[in-house]
Amino acid sequence: MRARYWTAALAVMGGISAAVGLPATAMKELVPPEMTAAAARTPEAPALPVTKAAAPALMPLRQGPKPTLQQPALLFAATIGDAPLPAVDPPRASWSREIASGETLDAVLAEAGIAAADRAEAALALGAEYDLRRLRPGHTISVVSAPDGAPRTISLDVDDGVRIEALFGARVETRVTTPDPEILSLAGEARITSSLFAALDDAGMPARFAVDLAQLLGGAVDFRRDLDGDETLRLMWREARVEGELVGQPELAFAALDLGDALYEIAWPEDGTGRATIYLDGEVERVFAQPVDGARLSSVFGRRVHPVFGNVRMHTGVDFAAAQGTPVRATAPGRVTFIGWRGGYGRVVEISHGTDTMTRYAHLSAVPDGLSEGQRVAAGDVIGSVGATGTATGPNLHYEVLVEGRPTDPLSDERLAEAAERDEQDGGALERLAEARAALVDALAIAAPDISHGRL
Where are the beta strands (DSSP E) in 243-274? Predict the structure, then answer.
């Protein structure tokens, strides 16, 4: 048996040796042509994969631990190199402070380190939107500068939350930001025990309303003699607020003065004309349009010491102190008879209200382009702007009423009232009174639920 095994083994070994010893021609005949061509082919260099790892099916099977792949690290580096880095703005410096009394824009910007050329550019840009002569304490200048000190933004915060900005870039641009205020309706009640001003102040209502009431009711009520300390005054007014802060001046909407034997009521429209309708015991008494909304009555009709010349002279009208450029409105319907200059009056507009009554508006800074002599105007129409032309110590409106050429007290003359009343007879005056009364009652109920509303 063992002899047979060894014989077989030798035979196999001999066969292998014979195969190895065959000539090349014999090998070519034994190997298929396709395999010979495949063995002679030179493989191409493999392309780098675009995924993190090759597909598992292409990996060689082998025993032992899995091979460690290095290609993902190269792919990660390539991804970082392709992504652009975000731009980082250089830090900017901010500077801000309020303007002090007597300071100019140029002086404040010089303190902020702004170069003279940039200060001039800022003045031109800001001055295009705001009269820099009106700068006053409380206005704020803010500067945002680049690291090299060059200005990027110069801002001016003025009245009523308005901001004017000069933006420095390829060229200087101007931007104006105006806040959108919240309009509140407020109401209150006061007992007049001493003076109208003190009554409003004690009740926490705007004391400036005393001027408006004295102006409108001065011809019918003597606030120094006709009051005995038991009169009731109820007011409703509107306030504009931005982020809780008052913007501008409050505006009266309705007033009711109960004297016991007479009830005077005044209703103002919401159209901004300042035209007020005065009622006595529920009937239209007169209509009055203030020449300047929210102005302070700075000088009344009569003899006074002249503020410029220093001697005692007759003051033939009333003066309303207001900011430069504040609109001036016609106090009654009529026809424009004169536009021009009259000596110490400066720029003047005169309006005829019938055959014997004329109103004069003096010291105006400007007149609307569309206004012309011979044109008809209604009560409340804008006919000019407050100024300081002629003999004036500051911006104000000098307002006169002349009857047959003679000056008369504008706060007591009834002829203008008659002209305005004819214009008011449209049937809506009593409806507006009823609406104003109802609104006042509702506002008082919110402000102080325990207030008795009297005869309203």
Answer: 245-258, 263-267
Nearest in space to 219 (alpha carbons), one of 423, 357, 417:
417
Residue 361: the pLDDT is 95
d(CA 230, CA 207): 19
Domain formed by 182-268+426-447, architecture: Roll (3.10)
Statement: residue 263 has pLDDT above 90: yes
Encode pLDDT of 184-198 as tens digits: 889 999 988 878 888
pLDDT at position 83, please?
60
Element holding 175 (H helix, E strand)? strand 173-177
Helix, strand or coil, per DSSP, at residue 268? coil
Q: Which residues pair with 288 in a beta bridge?
A: 276
161 phi-psi bin (left φ>0, alpha ψ -120 to 50, beta other): left
Alpha-carbon gap, residue 366 to 328, rounded angstroms:
10
298-310 tens-digit pLDDT: 666 555 454 544 5
Given this model, what pLDDT does residue 22 score? 44
Integer Cα distance of 210 and 289 in angstroms: 17
Q: How confident is the model at residue 32 (pLDDT cuts 50, 70, 90)?
A: low
- Distance (Å, whole) CA 361 – CA 289: 14
Q: Are strands 382-386 and 376-377 parallel, antiparallel or unpaired?
A: unpaired
CATH 2.170.150.70 fits 93-177, yes or no: no
- The answer to whether residues 164 and 174 touch, using CB atoms and an 8 Å cutoff, is yes
Residue 59, pLDDT > 50, answer no
The domains of the chain are located at 93-177, 182-268+426-447, 296-412
Q: What is the pLDDT of residues 382-395, one digit of tens each?
A: 999 999 998 887 88
How many Cα atoms are found within 13 Å in the side-chain-facing hemisphere of 390? 21
DSSP 182: E
Task: Determine the CATH number of domain 296-412.
Answer: 2.70.70.10
Encoding tokens for residue 143?
Answer: 């500067």
